[in-house]
Write a structure and sequence with these properties.
The complex is a heterodimer of chains A (313) and B (547).
Chain A lengths: L15 H32 L16 H28 L8 E8 L2 E5 L5 E3 L1 E5 L4 E7 L4 E5 L4 E5 L5 E5 L5 E7 L12 E6 L1 H9 L7 H11 L24 E3 L5 E3 L2 H9 L22 H13 L7
Helix pairs in contact in A: 1-2, 4-6
Chain B lengths: L1 H16 L12 H5 L4 H29 L10 H37 L7 H23 L13 H5 L4 H28 L12 H33 L12 H35 L6 H14 L15 H29 L8 H24 L1 H7 L3 H31 L5 H27 L14 H31 L13 H4 L29
């Protein structure tokens, strides 16, 4: 992290340059309008100083053309800015297909990070440069917000659901990671760093350290421990639907409604099983609320996802 | 305290011109103040209450700035620091900014400006002060018994489940202050509709009255929502009824929707009355009719209406739907337009005027400059992709202080100086007033401009400790806050001084237009006017009609 004197943070993600460009445009427009107003005020203030105590100037009612002019010009300008800002925002919502996934759990007052390959980190996130990364985030307690100024991105992490964000680092380096949503006593200590590494260095980092168990394997163990496999089998008469190959597909519910099996649906089905029961099954699954941490939920999700990969069992 | 000061002044006045009756010497007992139904006396009661709260909130601000002088959190413990910024926000927003201009100047001036003897419901008006003061006392009790640490936004589930501080007490304080604000708004709406003097048509009303009309609509429609929200938080905290906490089956984002549905329009409750003040002051000191009267009047109403439809711009990163964010963004850009229209019209009013630079005008020009910067940086925050970066950083802190301190408080200070002779019958010392206006302007900019930069650099708000590279900006900010503190202290001294030693004010020391100046004494008599005034001209008719 460069500690020198500066006006702008590093541009370290693929969107940082775009956001800064829009920011500079806004600065330019603002400086123009502010200077225009300040100049006019100064000019009038000097030119039309009261000359004598009983000086009464001529009345000016107003001028419709001028009113329209100074309503329409700002309107056009802000609509232009709206479209520009909205386009960038919209793009930052759809992660590319080839994004690699990393899981984040926020907790008073630290960030837990799990890589699918099994590495776990606290308050540090190692990522390769040039590879889109998608974060799926959950929190154990209150709202937090994952903020990396050098990436110009933040996203709240909200209890009771998953939120996601994605980015692609374009420059190796270490960058601040802040919690941006006030979360209690040690809010300002819920900080860390994102370490963006050249792909080769990243491979070294991945293979270094203690041998770690991939998330899906940990998830599979939890799946067995909680005896999920006794109902969710491939057997046609099983009490629960088979989970092989379902991730990312539609599932039909009782009554014909279809929902996509995604992280959020898996989460809901584990914690509130009767909310959306697949068609043809009875609502007999017990809730696992309280038996799994957010991290555990994500591991089981990773396992269920792995059942839909090509060549899986 | 106030009784003694006024008694002395009134005595002196009695000596000078042989017992001119006015609202101040109409009675000297504590009862004549505490049970008064005179809108002018109630305004004074409010003035004393909110000035006390402002000083309290200001002390919290200085403690915050002192802590942030160094990157390490070394002066206070984190928990104490968190309570400081929470109580600074709660006190300043709910107990100073929201009531400030309407409850003091709106109360004092609305009946005078429209030629009425009082507000429509004088007893309701007194009740509102008691309700407000009760709320403020609850707030102070929460502070005395250990404070509250949720941030003034009370976000759930932190506030409803996790915080171990006096959340309910502080929130109830805000609840009661809100109730007072509903009563005031209701009173103003009825008064403006029913009690205008003969000849005072809607489009002859001073723009101060229009601004308060728009403000009152927001107070009456918006405040009940935050009251409900506060009750829901209390129910969840006390009885574990699941509304906002997902562990109990609730939704934390729902809280944010409900909270901002009121709290964004609340920003307009703070700024619209100040805008009304600026219209009055600029016309008086340029001796000119306002440029584009209708546009300024209707832009107040437009702000009041659009202001209700933009709350989601506080939630771009909260996980709300992308499409919701798009809609809130476009509406937020639209609400910027009426503010721009006002600014251009005020500037145009100066054109070919006859401008003098007494303290109220210096504050008004300060308002124009600072509100312009605050408004323009609001456009940055409306912009989706930019807001994702600067949301919850010091950029936002700087922006809303430019609106609330640079806008609302500059307007409030302009009003204090402009109407001080009318309220007290005394002139303040002009030299000191101009000097302190300058000190405030410099101190303000030095405090808050660096925060735009450190915000874009990524410094999150509500941070007790921060990385070293942000220090230089924080040092500037703290230096500015010290100057600002001095700037606010000077007027407190000379205003009190002037009560006793200030030169006596004539009925219309500024040669201003308006019933409060032209038809009422300084200070006005208890029933405002000797006889009901009749209005025959438009507002700000500084140029005498020919023929």
């Amino acid at each position: 992290m460069d500690k020198g004197f500066r006006f702008f943070p590093d541009q370290a993600s693929s969107v940082a340059g775009d956001v800064d460009l829009l920011y500079f445009f806004l600065v330019a427009v603002s400086v123009f309008f502010a200077c225009l107003i300040f100049f006019l005020i100064y000019l009038f203030a000097v030119k039309y100083r009261r000359k004598s105590e009983d000086d009464i100037p001529k009345e000016i009612e107003g001028l419709l053309k001028l009113e329209i002019l100074w309503s329409v010009i700002p309107l056009i300008l802000v609509m232009f800015v709206f479209v520009w800002g909205a386009t960038l925002y919209f793009d930052s919502y759809t992660p590319p297909k080839n994004a690699s996934e990393i899981y984040v759990v926020g907790k008073q007052w630290m960030w837990h990070i799990q890589h699918p390959t099994g590495q776990r980190e606290i308050n540090e996130l190692h990522i390769p440069v040039g590879q889109p990364i998608k974060l799926t985030m959950a929190t154990e307690d209150v709202i937090h917000s994952f903020f990396v100024p050098a990436f110009r991105l933040k996203k709240d992490v909200v209890p009771g659901r998953y939120t996601t964000m994605w980015f692609e680092a374009i420059k190796a380096g270490e960058y601040h990671l802040f919690c941006a949503e006030y979360c209690g006593t040690k809010h300002s200590q819920m900080i860390g760093k994102v370490v963006a590494m050249e792909p080769a260095d990243y491979q070294n980092w991945l293979s270094g350290g203690a041998a770690s168990e991939p998330m899906e394997v940990t998830g599979e163990k939890k799946f067995q421990q909680l005896a999920c496999h006794t109902c969710h089998t491939d057997n046609a008469n099983a009490r629960g639907p088979s989970l092989v190959g379902v991730f990312g597909k539609d599932v039909e519910l009782e009554g014909g409604v279809k929902v996509v099996v995604d992280e959020e649906y898996i989460r809901e089905s584990i914690l509130t099983p009767n909310a959306k029961v697949a068609a043809g099954y009875k609502p007999v699954m017990p809730t696992f609320k309280g038996q799994l941490t957010e991290a555990g939920l994500l591991q089981i999700t990773a396992y269920i996802k792995s059942l839909s990969k090509d060549g899986s069992k | 305290m106030s009784t003694a000061v006024f008694k002395h002044r009134a005595d002196q006045q009695a000596e000078d011109n042989g017992h001119t009756k006015n609202y101040l010497n109409a009675g000297f007992s504590a009862k004549s103040w505490l049970l008064t139904v005179d809108h002018k006396r109630i305004a004074i009661l409010y003035l004393i209450s909110i000035t006390t709260m402002f000083l309290l909130g200001g002390i919290f601000a200085l403690v915050i700035r002192l802590e942030l002088l160094t990157p390490a959190g070394d002066m206070l413990q984190s928990e104490t620091y968190n309570k400081m910024f929470t109580m600074h926000g709660v006190v300043m927003v709910f107990f100073f900014l929201i009531p400030a201009t309407p409850a003091v100047f709106g109360n004092f001036l609305l009946p005078l400006m429209i030629g009425a003897k009082d507000l429509a419901f004088p007893r309701l008006n007194l009740l509102s002060w008691y309700v407000f003061t009760f709320g403020a006392l609850l707030g102070v009790t929460a502070i005395v018994f250990g404070g509250v640490d949720t941030g003034w936004t009370f976000y759930t589930p932190y506030s409803s489940t996790y915080a171990n501080s006096n959340v309910i007490l502080a929130a109830l304080g805000a609840f009661f202050a809100g109730f007072a604000s509903i009563l005031t708004g209701l009173n103003f709406i009825v008064t403006i509709h029913k009690m205008r003097a003969p000849g005072l048509t809607w489009f002859r009303m001073p723009l101060f009255v229009w601004a308060h009309y728009a403000t009152s609509i927001i107070q009456v429609l918006g405040t009940p929502v935050v009251a409900i929200t506060i009750i829901l938080v209390a129910l969840e905290r006390l009885f574990k009824i699941g509304i906002f906490d997902p562990a109990l089956g609730g939704d934390p984002i729902l809280f944010q929707h409900l909270f901002w549905f009121y709290s964004h329009p609340a920003v307009y409750i703070m700024i619209l009355p100040a805008m009304g003040v600026i219209s009055e002051v600029i016309c008086c000191f340029a001796r000119k009719k306002i440029f584009g009267y209708n546009f300024i009047a209707f832009s107040s109403l437009a702000i009041a209406m659009f202001g209700f439809l933009v709350w989601g711009h506080h939630m771009y990163t909260s996980g709300q739907s992308v499409y919701a964010s798009l809609v809130f963004s476009v509406l937020t850009f639209l609400v910027a337009i009426p503010s721009a229209i006002k600014t251009f019209n005020w500037t145009a009013t100066l054109y070919k005027g006859s401008i003098s630079y007494d303290a109220p005008m210096i504050y008004a020009i300060g308002f124009l400059g600072l509100f312009t910067i605050g408004g323009l940086t609001g456009v940055f925050l409306a912009t989706l992709a930019v807001d994702v970066h600067v949301h919850d950083t010091y950029f936002v802190v700087a922006h809303f202080h430019y609106i609330m301190v640079g806008g609302a408080i500059m307007g409030y200070m302009a009003a204090m100086h402009f109407w001080w002779p009318k309220i007290t019958g005394r002139l303040y010392p002009e030299g000191w007033a101009r000097f302190s206006a300058l000190v405030i302007f410099i101190g303000f900019n030095l405090t808050f401009f660096p925060q735009f930069i450190v915000g874009y650099l990524g410094m999150p708000r509500r941070y007790h400790a921060y990385p070293e590279e942000f220090q230089i900006w924080n040092v500037l900010s703290t230096a500015g806050a010290t100057i600002l503190g001095v700037g606010y202290a000077i007027p407190v001294v000379y205003f009190i001084w002037s009560l006793r030693y200030g030169a006596k004010a004539s009925a219309n020391p500024w040669k201003a237009k308006g019933l409060e100046w032209e038809k009422a004494d300084s200070p006005p008599i208890a029933h405002n006017f000797e006889e009901t005034p009749v209005v025959t001209e438009e507002a700000y008719a500084y140029e005498p009609k020919r023929g």
